Fold this sequence. Notes:
Chain A is mostly helical. Chain A is about 75% helix and about 0% strand. Chain B has twelve helices and 14 strands.
Amino acid sequence: MKREIPVAITFIVGTAYLIAYFIPHEPFNYFENWFNDWFAVIAAFAIWLGVLNLIKISTIKIVRKSPDWPYSVLIIVSFIIIVFFGFYEGYRGLYANPHYSFRDPGTSFDWLYVNVYTPLSATMFALLAFFVASASYRAFRARNFEATLLLLAAFLVMLGRVPVGDILTSWLPHQYQLSQWANWIMHVPNTAGQRAIMIGIALGLVSTSLRIILGLERSYLGND
Amino acid sequence: MKLNNLFFSSNSSRFSLIFLLFIMILLINGSVFGQDKPVLSDSLNYDSIITASKPLPPVDIRVKDEPGDAGGVIDISWKPSPDEKNGKVKEYLIFRSKSKSGPFKEVGNSTVGVTSYMDNKADLGVGFYYKVASFNFAKENGNYLWKSMGESEVYGPVKSTAQWFNIKRLNIFIGIIVLCGAIIYFIFAAKSGKSFYIRKIAGIEEVENAVGRATEMGRSIYYIPGINDMDDVQTLASMTILGRVATFAAENDTRIDVPVSRSLVMVTAKEMVREAYSKVGRPDSFREDQVRYLTDDQFGYAAAVDGLFVREKPATIFMIGAFFAESLIIAETGNSIGAIQIAGTAMPAQLPFFVAACDYTLIGEELFAASAYLSREPKLLGSLKGQDFGKAVFLIAIIIGVILESFGIPFSKFFMAH
C-alpha cells in the first residue's frame, strides 16, 4: 500500500489536470484551483519541517562543536531575531490604532528587511557580474573551431549592442552596420537554437509526465 | 482719427457697438454656434449628448459566445468607425442589456485601435443584447467639457454557454495524442523484448565516473536540486536522478550532501537518499544532516551553497533541476574549487551559464531522459524512443512548414492559429 496509494493519487491528479486542460466545463474547470490550493496548504505545513530541520541540524552542530559551528550560531541568532521582530511588530500592529502590518514601512521588521536582507541579497546578485566575466573568459577562449565561432559571435553581439559599434561602421549602409549584425545573430541563429531546445524540453516534459502519471517512473517515491 | 470718434460719433456707431457686444455674449454662451459646438455636460447622462459632433458608430459588429470556455464570457468585435480617421473617436463604449429595448448599461470600453471587447461578466445561459458606441469627448482637469456619442444598432441576444471541449487547444490535443500514443507503443514494444538503440549522453555517462572521483579523493558529493518545488517536473526529474546518484554514492560509501531550498523537496530527497543507502545494504551510513533545508530565498540559498562549497570543497557537484539567476553564482563557485561538475536544466536562459562553468551539461530533454537512461529499464527506455518519434514528427512538420511558407501557402500559420 505504501507504493500503490501515492501512485494512485499521482495518476488521479495527473489525469484530472490533463482533462481539465481540454475540458473547460464544470466540474473540470475547478480541478486546477482545487489541486493548487491543496498543494499550497501542504507546502505551508511542510515549511515547518524545513525550519525545524534547519534548527535541529544547526543546534546539533553547535552542541558537538562540529567544524564551522559558529556559522550555525549565526543562523539560529538571525532566525530568532527576525522571527521575534516579526511577531512583536505583528502583535503591536494588531492592537494599534489604526492597525498596521509587521511589514509596513517604519516597523523594526521592515528596518531589518531594508537594511540587512535587501543589501545582502543585492550583494549576491551583484556577484553575478563578476562570475559572468570569468565564465565568459573561459568560454570564449579560441581553443577550437566552435569556440572561435562563439568568440566571434559574442564579439559582434557585444559590439553591436553599444553605440560605438554603429559609430565604427557608420560608413556602411544601415543594414550592414554592427547593430544589425547583432540583431541578426540574436534573431536568427540564436532563436533557432533556443527553439530547438524548447521543442526538446516540451517533448521531454510530456514523456516524463506520462511516465509519472502511468506509474512507470516511481523512483521519486523513494522506491523503484 | 481717435478711437472714440470711430464708434461714438453717431447713432449708427453706437448701434454697431451694442450689436458687437451682443454677438460676443452669444458666442461666449454658445447660442449662435450651439448646433456645431457640443453641449457642456458634467454628468454621464448620455441621452443629452448633442448630435452635431456625434461620431459615426463602428461597423460590422459581431457578438458571439467565447468558444472553448467554461461560460460567462461573450466576445464583441467590430470594425472601426469611419470617423476614427478624422479624430472624432476617442474610445469605444460597450453597452449591455437583458432586453432589446433597454435600458442599456455600460459594461466596458476600449481605446481607439482596439476593435474587440470580452465581456467576462455575462451570466451563464442568460441572453444579452449589446451595442457599441463611438465616443468623442474633451476633458479638462478630469472633468468632461463636452461629450458626444454615436451608437450602433442593438445586437443579440447572445447566451454564454460552457463547452465540453476547448476547441482552441485542438492542435495541442492532437499533438499530445500522437506523442502519448507513440510513447505507449514503444513502452509496450520494449516490454515485449524489443531492444532499442539509445544514443550516448556524455553527461549521464560521466555520472558514475564523477562519483568514483569523489570516492578516490575521499571527499563528498554535493547534489543541488534547483530552487523550485515539487510541483515542477524538473524537480521531479531531478529527484529520480538523485536516487540513481545516491545509489552510486552509497555503493562507493561516499558521502552525498543535498542542501535544498524547499521543505517538500527536502522530505522527498531525504527519502530518496535513505532508500538508496538501504538498497545497497548500508542503512547505517545514512545521516540525517545529509539532506538539509537551507532557505526558500533565492540568493540566500545561493550564498549558503557557495559557503558550503568553499568550506567543504566537494570533489563532485551535481546541479540538476530548475535554476534561475543563481545558476552561475553556484556553478562558478564550484568551478573555482576544482570540483567536477555535472549540470542539467530545462531553463533555456541558464543553459549557456552551465555550459560555460560546468564539465558536462544535460541540455533540456537530456535532463528528462537521464533517469530512464541511468535505470536501463526497457519500459523507461521505450519512452525515450517515443520521445524521439515526437522529435521526428516535429522535424517533418518544420520542413513541410518551411516549404509551404516559402511558396506562399500559409498552412502552418493556419494550423498554429487553430
